[in-house]
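User: When convenient, might I ask for sequence and structure tokens for a protein?

AI:
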Amino acid sequence: MNDSPRPAATPATIRVFIALAPPDDAKDELARALAPAYAAYPGMRWNRIEDWHITLAFLGELPAAVVPRLHAPLAELAGERGPLELSLRGGGQFDSRVLWSGIAGDVPGLHRLADDVRERVKEAGIAYEGRPLRPHLTLARARRGDLTGVPAAVGVLDGFEGRAWPAARLHLVGSDDARGPAPVRYRDIDSWPFTGTGTGTGRGTGAGV
């Protein structure tokens, strides 16, 4: 009888998005600004700092076998584009449910990159219809039945101006295998440095958030 542990089963689907990630020191700067909100509103569902991303295209649940189609086109795109200079600035809310930090810097370039990402997704044969890009970094969500914390926490970020930083890599991000009440954790499936000099094809209809 073989009692050795069986390898974990590969999930049939995986939640996927394509994003940029602030560097650690920029995230630490924002976390320090958020310290009063962390202390005052511990009941909110605060995102882990490791999961802070600026989403360019949220693809949702995809068959795991389909995800490898994205690697080559995204690597090619990153090789054509140069880094974007961005910063984190201020804060806001979506419907008293989502707390976010705003994005400043080369926002037109961010829109062009999102449009190019969407086109590469479609060229890979993956259907995608997203909402117009509203550049932001999601920080927390309200607990069910309590919509007071998010509006109150927004004021903590009034006047926040983070330092500028280069968005140097394009990230393909996927969820872990957690299901049920456990929070979803994200990890890089792969990432690619921006090594080109291009600035994109121009702004179109926007990309998903």
